[in-house]
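Morning F.,

Quick status update on the modeling queue. The single chain you submitted on Monday has been processed. Sequence for confirmation:
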Amino acid sequence: AIKQQSLFSKGKIILVDDEFLPMLTNLGSKIKIVSSQKLENELLNNMNGHKYQPVPSESMFVILFTSGSTGLSKGICHTQKDLIFIGRNCASSWKISSSDRLLSGIPLLSAATLGCILIPALLQGACLIIPDKRKPEVLVDSIEKKKATFFLGTPTNYIQAVNGYFKRKWS
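Structure tokens below.
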């Protein structure tokens, strides 16, 4: 899955735990595989006297804004612990595994995509498909050509994807 997805990606580096290095040796010379442990050691050794202080998982990680459906958009603070909890529950509930290919029809920096697509993909080692655009025809193409096994979207995304699929199929 990684090799196939790398053909569609502009990524140049894959950061992995040491245990996965042997599985990724045949990706070719265009992608550099970096051990997360080696990177962490190099960062710690080159801190020029600065002290390493781990960030507690209860610290604020990201502020995500609501859609403003009940008025003004509101910034909601999320901790790392919150998002990992959501991600683990989504991965478990939806039985996401390393063989899945996850696609989101909603913006990447939304609570739904972070908690239900991005983090479960990272936790489970699944492939994350990031479409160039969220237009119906692009989503349908991504589902078909990139063989998405899981799609998260709004009701409008589903209606447009279904209509786009059938429109293309019978035109």
